[in-house]
Automatic annotation (TrEMBL):
Domain of life of the native organism: Bacteria
Organism from which the protein derives: Neomicrococcus aestuarii
Name this polypeptide is given: Peptidoglycan binding-like domain-containing protein
Gene3D superfamilies assigned to the protein according to its UniProt record, in alphabetical order: PGBD-like superfamily/PGBD
InterPro entries with a match to the protein in the record: PGBD-like_sf (IPR036365), PGBDSf (IPR036366)
């Protein structure tokens, strides 16, 4: 268990030289399973065996029948453990919603003594907290609602800035805390464990969208005017006033709607023209 996702059927550790496996399931392992035993716990074992193609379609659901016994025997041979017709309850740990990241608790280490019912593994109980450090000169630019795109080796997650917090310590830093975008329940959805290591900090590259992408016609900001009614407009080269919608301005350029590409706009005192 190295922080990667654990899939159903994975060997997670050994006790007294005997391998222990995790299988997808909601019912804890509470008894040995052998021929003739019936119940929902048998069914979840059968579902695992079917998923790994050890068990076909001909078997008695919820009952440990001959087909199930043969399937367990095949699995045991491939997985490297002895099987005498009884699957001990300690051989398997059932964990719901696999695959997910599982890591050992601090009490689980080489040579440690364990007892029945002891908790040994932990998995994520909630979505991780996504944040990034904000440099002092950028604090005024990072505002709630800004979109942040996180790159996870081929796929992208998106969130938005929720708030800024100052960290405690000798040197205070500003940290931006992210939240899911509107209409989303999670930043990473069911894929959190694929890229985020449990119990540790994971560094992922991201892009902050300081200015949302806009479409329109780009013109010099100096060509944009406003009247007493706060309506924005430009003068076209023939002297015609054209009302526009100003979408965004940055570094002397503006994106507007209301004129066409190729229209010649007047700058400053109307003595200069420029074609967008």
């Amino acid at each position: 268990m190295d922080g990667q996702s654990t899939v159903s059927g994975s060997r997670v550790f050994s006790v007294d030289l005997q391998p222990i496996f995790v299988i997808n399931g909601k019912i804890p392992s509470f008894r040995d399973l052998s021929s003739g035993v019936s119940g929902a716990d048998v069914q979840q074992l059968q579902e695992f065996l079917v998923s790994k193609r050890y068990l076909g379609t001909t078997f008695t659901r919820t009952r440990f029948d001959n087909a199930t016994n043969t399937a367990v025997s095949k699995w045991a041979k491939d997985a490297g453990f002895s099987y005498d017709g009884t699957l001990p309850r300690w051989r398997v740990i059932y964990v719901p919603d696999l695959p997910k990241v599982l890591v050992p608790l601090e009490s689980l280490r080489v040579g440690a003594q364990i007892s029945q019912g002891q908790e040994l593994l932990q998995g994520p109980v909630a979505d991780p907290v996504f944040s990034f450090r904000v440099l002092p000169e950028n604090v005024s630019k990072i505002t709630p609602g800004l979109k942040v795109v996180i790159d996870t080796s081929g796929e992208q997650w998106s969130g938005r800035v929720s708030r800024l917090e100052n960290t405690a310590g000798d040197v205070s830093e500003t940290v931006a805390i992210l939240e899911p975008e509107q209409g989303q329940a999670s930043i990473c959805g069911g894929e959190c464990s694929r890229a985020v290591k449990l119990g540790d900090k994971t560094v992922l590259p991201g892009i902050i969208e300081l200015i949302p992408e806009q479409t329109g016609v780009q013109i010099p900001t100096a060509a944009v005017r406003s009247d007493a009614n706060n309506k924005t407009f430009v003068f076209i080269s023939d002297g015609v006033r054209r009302e526009i919608t100003l979408k965004v301005s940055d570094q002397g350029k503006s994106i507007v709607e209301g004129i066409n590409v190729g229209d010649r706009v007047l700058l400053g005192d109307a003595s200069e023209e420029q074609t967008p």
